[in-house]
Automatic annotation (TrEMBL):
Region (Disordered): 88-107
Entry keyword annotation includes Ribosomal protein: no
PANTHER family tied to this protein: 30S RIBOSOMAL PROTEIN
Cellular-component GO terms for this entry: cytosolic small ribosomal subunit
Pfam families per UniProt: Ribosomal_S30AE
GO biological process: negative regulation of translational elongation
Composition skew (Basic and acidic residues), residue ranges: 91-107
Cross-referenced InterPro entries: HPF/YfiA_ribosome-assoc, RHF-like, RHF/RaiA
Name of the protein: Ribosome hibernation promoting factor
NCBIfam families named among the record's database cross-references: yfiA (TIGR00741)
Protein's UniProt keywords contain Phosphoprotein: no
Amino acid sequence: MQFQLSGQQIEITQALRDRATSKLDRLTHLDDKILSLSIVLSIDKLQQCAEGTLTVKGATLHAEAKEMDMYASIDALIDKLTHQLRKHREKVNDKHQREVREERQYG
């Protein structure tokens, strides 16, 4: 999996990089076919923003989180991406199971 962490008008410290990479296990645990993850950190007035794009086979998932703390933003972003990835996996599995049922029924 390719992982990219960048910042807009903010320096990416080692602590921020460590926090983001430590949270990757939650995503890779759900789906080992993740192609890439790109996270952009920025500051918008008093809000700390984390924006992420997750690419998996068959879909591109995008989420954004704004909190008062950058670490909380990263956590919220990963939570949102995890939720989206779960929904995507359920949708793919349901479709596959429906196709198998129809094949058995009509085949």
